Amino acid sequence: MTSRIREFLRNRREDGPCLVVDLEVVRENYTTFAKALPDTRIFYAVKANPAPEVLRLLAGLGSCFDTASVVEIQLALDAGAAPERISFGNTIKKERDIVRALELGVRLFAVDCQAEVDKIGRAVAQVGARDAKVFCRVLCDGAGAEWPLSRKFGCDPQMAPDVLEHAHRLGLEAYGVSFHVGSQQRNTEAWDGALAMASSVFRACAERGIFLSMVNLGGGFPAKYLKQVPAVGAYGNSIFQALRRHFGNRIPETIIEPGRGMVGNAGLIQAEVVLVSKKSDEDRVRWVYLDIGKFGGLAETMDEAIRYPIRTPRDSDAKAPCVLAGPTCDSADVLYEKDPYWLPVSIEIGDKVLIEGTGAYTTTYSAVAFNGFPPLKSYII
Predict the structure, then answer these.
(1) What's the pLDDT tens digit per position in 210-236?
(2) Which fold has domain 265-380?
(3) Which family does the record assign (predicted)?
(4) Cα separation, 369 vs 361, whole angstroms
(5) Catalytic: 329?
């Protein structure tokens, strides 16, 4: 917890669970990424935390933006980003949304199949745009990530040249290749195999007379939770070595899409203990219920994939395992049960707890007031 957040919480009026994000940490993170990969453009993943204050700060620092919808595109524009600094990175887009993005000046689009290319081709013809670029996302296994991504996005690498050639034939610029090595990727070498795959797509396209320009290295850069993570500089060095290994002296343009790594450690949630109980007199494991759960912003505890550091005012006392759960009337609203969380034995109803590393993917997952509990309040300082 930064001194700025500590001071904010000391003077805060009680109004339920809240997220507090320190912009100075976001600034430091952006600078760290820029130094680690100085020849790579940063496209902040807006979905991680779309707070206008965060976007304005990053736009002022020179960041580009990875967006997944027209709403996110508009947020980036409102923050001061020019359209050429915005990528429509979702591979599943309505054609009318592509049209709107083109009308707003966006020209960079992600695809992973020929049908998506067709939509962009028709939208370009409708708007009269002449400089649209597409990059093809390819599947990556995500080995080593705490949250490997599914097969929902991306195509087989052998299919990518066909997709890009189709774009080329429609008059679009076949710009490059994209991949994602998995969220919360703690293996700095994970990009090596993905870049080998990307270079093979570059060669296959070149044999067809199509010369790609860009590799989108995706996200996956971790935030620190309970486990230690490598420094950003270690990722930068590993990625640069892999680029040299697989592309030689013809290193393509590169971009990265940090989200969690940009804002995760900049925020924490203050919550309150609502109930401490047991299910039977013989039960040795307590249930600790907070006033925030999966539906209030902690959706990434699904399958207990992300384990947040939790601080209490009683951390110097003896600890014992407990089941940690949220306040709603949904049995799925349990945060940690398979691997119980160790909390102080003395923890009581009304105690405040601090859930650290929650600057990413919390407010964006709490938009619906399920059971009447309001969406997570957010304070950007």
Answers:
(1) 999 999 999 999 999 988 999 999 999
(2) Lyase, Ornithine Decarboxylase; Chain A, domain 1 (2.40.37)
(3) Belongs to the Orn/Lys/Arg decarboxylase class-II family.
(4) 16
(5) yes
